[in-house]
Amino acid sequence: MTFQSEKLTTDSFFNGQLKVKQGKTGYRFSLDAIVLAGHVRPQEGDRILDLGAGCGIISLILAYRHQNIKIYGVEVQESLAHLASLNVEENHMKDRIKIICKDLKGLKADDISGPVNSVVSNPPYRKIKAGRINPDPQKAAAKHEINANLDDVIKTAWRTLLSGGRLVMIYAAQRLTDLLISMRKTGIEPKFFRMIHPDVHSAAKLILVEGAKGGNAGMKNGPPLILYNEDGSYSDEVKDMFSP
């Protein structure tokens, strides 16, 4: 599949060292993806699975920040999978990132050359019957559980993780209970969570949760993450996520 340049935009990260193309219309990544990527801290030689890779933004950031890891990005929408592959190629990361166009519900460890150390995901937050579904198919699939629901994502993480491997997710704060219950019943024990607030005066909108496959009970609560200052600028912590 080829893309017409006039239908794409290019965002630059890390002083222009990473360039990410995405469509002018349809799905476009948000700050959620940047925050999630900023909380994944792999060890050298780790293998990572990015479920719902979109245009590849999380995989690209991780590969830029961590030179000696291997990443598999899985995306069910063919147009987005091709765009992610284009971004991988243009950033010269084909040796470290492999994009797979596949429904995650059928994904097995053998599809990614064996179990991984970590799974990361920024899945749709809304149930099918929760609110109006966007008429744009890409936007609809990014916000509503059309192609996969929460349980599907967590079951796939369990199937593909090594014992003790980590799942790191960003999700809607109002669905925290759903997330924790789904993780525990699937065999991924919640170990860490962090509330994410738009600003110091607002309730948390998002939650970042990390769990371990087969882990023991016991979860730590990290400090709140504030996204924006009162003047609308990024907080210092968020600014650091954009720094080389």
What keyword list fits this structure?
two-stranded antiparallel sheet; alpha/beta; 7 helices; Rossmann fold; nine-stranded mixed beta sheet; 244 residues; 11 strands; globular
The CATH topology corresponds to Rossmann fold
CATH class: Alpha Beta
Overall form: globular
* Number of structural domains: 1
Fraction in beta strands: 25-35%
What is the helical fraction, as a range of percent?
A: 25-40%
Ends distance: 32 Å
Mean pLDDT: 90
* Order of H and E elements: EEHEHEHEEHHEHEEEEH
State the secondary-structure class: alpha/beta
Oligomer: single chain
Individual helix count: 7
Query: Segments where pLDDT lies below 50 for 5+ residues?
Result: 139-146
How many E strands?
A: 11
CATH H-level homologous superfamily name = Vaccinia Virus protein VP39
Briefly summarize what is shown:
This protein is an alpha/beta fold. The protein has helices at residues 31-38, 57-65, 78-90, 137-143, 150-160, 176-186, 236-241, and strands spanning 8-13, 18-23, 47-51, 70-75, 97-101, 116-121, 161-172, 188-197, 206-213, 220-221, 225-226. The longest helix is centred in the middle third of the chain and has 13 residues, at 78-90.
